[in-house]
Design goal:
9 helices; 77% helix; single chain; mainly alpha
Length: 193
């Protein structure tokens, strides 16, 4: 038996394309961090969230008992359900499972969003701007998955799959934005120590 090693290293063209895409993404994030258009709304929203009488619940939502933010833990429910539904969309006879996973993912959004807003309320302006885009991407994802669930419940599984693909794309963008906010927090915290 002749065994060959599959060369999976990127070609120069692939590397250049990734570098270009990465530079474009980082440039977009830099612009987003610097734009002040939404700052008045951000200040009002942050002040409003901070003024909510949450008591000890605020610490719980911010993840203080865990020693790290709660939001990244809670987002695993919708993301995991929706990713699993996307995989099962390619399995014959799995319509009931994909419908259930889509619904459970939607049910998991509220706790994750509440914890996310609690964290967001204390972010500095640059991170809050990206965080607002992260929230907008999440709204798009929820809208797509709500349309997907509606289509699935009406027996239109092909339409449900298409809406789910749109939702997964929005989740990917949202995750990249949220990851950027988390990375900036970590870099800022590290630089402060």
């Amino acid at each position: 038996m002749n065994s060959r090693t599959l060369d999976t290293s990127p070609t120069a063209g692939q590397t250049a394309a990734l570098d270009t895409a990465s530079a474009c993404w980082l440039k977009t994030l830099d612009r987003l961090e610097r734009t002040t258009v939404a700052d008045p709304a951000i200040r009002v929203l942050q002040r409003g969230i901070r003024s909510l009488p949450l008591g000890g619940m605020r610490d719980l939502l911010r993840g203080r008992p865990l020693g790290h933010p709660l939001h990244p833990v809670l987002v695993q429910v919708p993301i995991g359900c929706w990713l699993s539904a996307s995989v099962l969309d390619f399995v014959p006879g799995a319509q009931r499972a994909t419908t259930t996973l889509t619904a459970v993912g939607l049910a998991g959004v509220a706790p994750a969003a509440v914890a996310g807003w609690a964290d967001w309320a204390d972010l500095p302006p640059e991170q809050a701007r990206v965080g607002l885009a992260h929230a907008a991407s999440n709204v798009a994802a929820v809208a797509c998955y709500t349309a997907s669930l509606t289509a699935r419940l009406r027996g239109r599984s092909a339409k449900g799959r298409l809406w789910a693909l749109g939702g997964m794309a929005a989740v990917a963008v949202s995750g990249a934005l949220g990851g950027h906010v988390a990375y900036r927090q970590a870099v800022g915290a590290h630089a402060a120590t």
